[in-house]
Batch of 2 targets.
Target 1
Amino acid sequence: MFVFAQQPSLVNQFVAELRDVSIQKDRLRFRRNLERIGELMAYEISKTLPYHNVSIKTPLGISETQLLRQQPVLATIMRAGLPFHQGLANYFDQAENAFAGAYRGYSASDSDEFEITMDYIVSPDIGGKTLILSDPMLATGRSLEKIYHAMLRYGIPAQTHIAAIIASPEGVRHVQRQLPQCHLWLGAIDSHLNEHSYIVPGLGDAGDLAYGGKV
Ligand SMILES: O=P(O)(O)OC[C@H]1O[C@H](OP(=O)(O)OP(=O)(O)O)[C@H](O)[C@@H]1O
Ligand SMILES: O=c1cc[nH]c(=O)[nH]1
Ligand SMILES: [Mg+2]
């Protein structure tokens, strides 16, 4: 597990702006911060992927270098995942992409009980590839768990990286227990989940901050 906050960097600045009540209401800035954290996480994850030797022809000779053996498949979860995913795609710019529509479907009787409803998923074949599954918020971990298992319809990935910006200790434990094979990349691990399963101190509702409320 790699937690960016444990080694201060620019990621801290962008996470702070996501959280800051005096900044986060600027939707363009909120989405841009999700995106540039995605770019920085792409760079860190790229250091762990397989490379191969390549000769590049320049106007003056041949440059020997090492390039990514294969582009990953980038998967994300609407709505809040989209700007974060864009950042990953900006840097893994030849990657194939998968998208899932999932949300917390609250029960009529108890406003704090919810099921993760997924009614949309599209994906390329992921068999034998590196899968990077992103969602800015890792609260209970049930969204990421559900989407990961849904992705297995499209093949068994060679390795899976899960990227989240803000996580709860409960969510980290859930993913480590349910998805032990997945590498975890986290912006920060916060204090706890409140009774509504929101991360505290967190940032509020990432999807609403990025795209506005929903009824
Ligand atoms: O770890 P979990 O308990 O599953 O919570 C995390 C999920 O909750 C939020 O989605 P939400 O249902 O609010 O949809 P949205 O992204 O469209 O706002 C957030 O965007 C994550 O996808
Ligand atoms: O704190 C949280 C938890 C789940 N989803 C969010 O958008 N924020
Ligand atoms: Mg939301």
Target 2
Amino acid sequence: MVTAKVWVLKKHFQGFPKPSDFDLKKIELPSLQDGELLLESVFLSVDPYMRPYSQRDMKEGDVMIGTQVARIVESKNPAFAAGAFVVANSGWRSHFISDGKGLHLLPSSWPESLPKSLALGTVGMPGLTAYFGLFEVCKMKPGETVLVNAAAGAVGSVVGQLAKIGGCKVVGCAGSDDKVAYLKKIGFDEAFNYKTVTSLDEALSKASPDGYDCFFDNVGGEFSSIAINHMKKHGRIAVCGAISQYNDSVPQKGPYVQIPMIFKELRMEGFIVTSWNNRREEGQKALLKWVLEGKVKFHEQVTEGFENMPAAFIGMLRGENLGKAIVKV
Ligand SMILES: NC(=O)C1=CN([C@@H]2O[C@H](COP(=O)(O)OP(=O)(O)OC[C@H]3O[C@@H](n4cnc5c(N)ncnc54)[C@H](OP(=O)(O)O)[C@@H]3O)[C@@H](O)[C@H]2O)C=CC1
Ligand SMILES: CCCCCCC/C=C/C=O
């Protein structure tokens, strides 16, 4: 008999999530039926989407949503061998039973030298978000200037590096000087700390006096309201995330986008990475290749211990992560 530890949403978040909003429970798992597998989480992901999705899709007492890299402990399913590693979407659980549906085996070409946790970051959902957001939504072209915010995070750091691979000038902003130094190290042309500049307007003008062709927006709110005025004519804005608004109890008000959108003839498109699930393999293959060639660098903020899931999640929302926030069990 295996005892699984699970984190449940005890109380819907009001404003910024607090440790007391979560509860750690134990569940006895039954023995396996034919077709089933027993898995243990090795790495779990904490992501910004969990904040708005919990509000929309979860009720109090539900296991927190989320993905993990898990090892198959035992298998009664011929499609999966014990010892293999998969990416699963089973929530904040230390152990779980699956019938195999929705599990993605790590590519057989996954090199031993590469942390398997990258399948939750640069070579996983956040990397794919950068890939499809830039190539399919922004439709970035060589020679253009790309702006990305939350640039030192899981998605943003890949956006900047893919834009460089694609022959663009890249401007990024992040919330600490260490993050800004990291952005320069991984090849961003310009980077600034949005928390310490005296004027966002001036910082955006200084970084690219001619303006921006593409804006990969991870943040929303005030930053985006200012950045839209720095777009070039026919610029494209990929609305990826709005983390500056996820913890608001009262919705933020304008300024509104219509006037700059009309006069600059902009295109602004929201997107969800899962719309390209049918091209997941293509994206993963490209990202893995660039990582192995050293063209895409990565950093992970690893928190040790399943019991620290809420702390890692809250820390990521506060901006304590450089690169992808991961929990190692
Ligand atoms: N549309 C889609 O399919 C997907 C969308 N997303 C979205 O992309 C964005 C980035 O996600 P991800 O890369 O995983 O997360 P990150 O790794 O970038 O972590 C979140 C970062 O957001 C920044 N942040 C937090 N609060 C604020 C704020 N008030 N203003 C500005 N920045 C803030 C912090 O960095 P800093 O120190 O720089 O402030 C923090 O480190 C999120 O908005 C997320 O929801 C992610 C995946 C898929
Ligand atoms: C199986 C995990 C699905 C994750 C989808 C993430 C979409 C993110 C939206 C905003 O953050």
